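Task: sequence in, structure out. Protein: MFS transporter.
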Amino acid sequence: MFTVLANHSYRQLFLAQIVALLGTGLATVALSLLAYDLADDHAGMVIGTALTIKMLAYVFIAPLASALFRALSRRKLLVTLDLIRASVAVFLPFVSEVWHVYILIFILQSASACFTPLFQATIPDILENEEQYTQALSLSRLAYDLENLISPALAALMLTLMTWQGLFTGTVIGFIASALLILSVTFPIMKAANKNRSGIYQKTTRGIRFYLATPRLRGLLAMNVAVTCAGAMVIVNSVVIVQSTFGLSAQDTALAFTFFGGGSMFAALTMPCLLKRMQDRTLMLGATLLLILGLFSASRISHIIELWTIWFLLGAGYAWIQTPSGRLLTRSSHEEDRPDLFAAQFSLSHACWLFAYPLAGWLGVKLGVSLTFSVFGMVALLAFLLALKLWPAEDPEVVEHYHANFPENHPHIAHSKRLHSHPFVIDDLHEKWPRKSN
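Result:
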């Protein structure tokens, strides 16, 4: 897996991802402490609102940014977004009102909603070899999981030397270091996008339209629903099970999250080997079944060891679906359209989280956590059946199709027939997936 780090450009971008993640992790801890300082007993409401603002920015800003900024230099744009995030982190320690926090969080998360899909879409342009790109996806997943373990520990260490305001200094340093590392990379020249497009609405929805017209990506969206069912229940209700049901401590809650992260890390480490032996669809559908099994099993948890086991399995299933998604997006797009598709995946997947988070909490209170696990298990089962239908087992890269409405002199069919075959993706010339009869 680590041989991909021999590529200088990717290595610099991977390091940029790590330092930015550490900065974000420190900001998460610092934001909790800031909320408590400003709102005391109502800190949970402040944090919940901030998370909602984050999700709204992710859902709506990502596709809009992809439409507005696609013609700009990717390197300059990524560096600018890192500097914007660093600037927001500079101001956060000095806020005195809760509404200040909300405004700054919206700016910070809007910059992240612009940054993350563009950064993700750049990696397959640098690593054109699919095996190397698969390794990079696994490393990226590993980085996210390690950040969840390292950032809280680093924050605890820093708090022995400084006040919570000092944690934002680490955030600023992380984003600036990320910007400097990105500046050291020579980005491949991106193919020019088609300029003959209509207004801002068409440009903004372009990635989502292409995404929803691609069968394998419709299947991915269905599996994203299962992912959020499992992830939201773990994130929202772990503390309820561990501390209210079992009567254990906050340390035990942290340990439960560690098992979930451990499962995700296990999946990331094993994924390159698994994808040499099976298709993406097989692995991802199998992982969805694992999530369904875990959700139904969680409704009957009676001991902390059972919880650790189930959380590990849920973490593995979560990552076996999330991590290969970049391969599907790359396979389903031309280079010049890739940022639009990654932005669509970013937006649509976070829309699932936007519903799953509050439902996991609200249903957990109204129905009880055990019954809520069963409800979410049923939703995940429906998502699995939908994914089976939407993503056919026969999913070739080269597809025979027919252009009925093209004039005889159209460039696309000038050197071939109306009925022809080539690697097929949804684009301006192919707006619908061909039926099997074609």
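The first strand starts at residue 398 and ends at 402.
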